Amino acid sequence: MLDPCDGTAPVAIAAECEYGSDADVLAVDVEADAQAAYERRQADELEIPYPEQ
Fold first, then answer.
1. Strand locations in the chain, DSSP E?
2. Which of 28, 41, 43, 53 has a CA-to-CA distance to 12 between 20 and 30 Å?
3. Are 28 and 21 within 8 A, CB to CB?
4. Which domain holds residue 12?
5. Is residue 51 part of a domain?
6. Is the pLDDT of residue 53 over 60?
């Protein structure tokens, strides 16, 4: 799945929730903080540990 627009995190996380480790997700964002924000949200939604920076 390629999700190149606003709201990438919810769609990417939904795919990961549905398909687990079989999900092949590429989310594109222009915001510098987007990856860290996504990883925090992913950790919350999927209940995985998020390494503190």
1. 2-3, 26-27
2. 53
3. no
4. 2-46
5. no
6. no
Judge whether 34 lies within some domain: yes
pLDDT 10s digits, 23-33: 888 777 777 78
Please indicate, yes or no, if residue 6 is contained in any of the structural domains.
yes
Q: What is the pTM of this model?
A: 0.60
| SS3 per-residue string spanning the chain | CEECCCCHHHHHHHHHHHHHHHCCCEECCCCCCHHHHHHHHHHHHHCCCCCCC
Question: 34-48 burial by CB neighbour count: b if 16+ within 10 A, else e?
Answer: eeeebeeebeeeeee
3-state secondary structure of 23: coil
Structural domain total, the chain = 1
Q: What CA–CA distance (Å, rounded) separates 42 from 49? A: 9
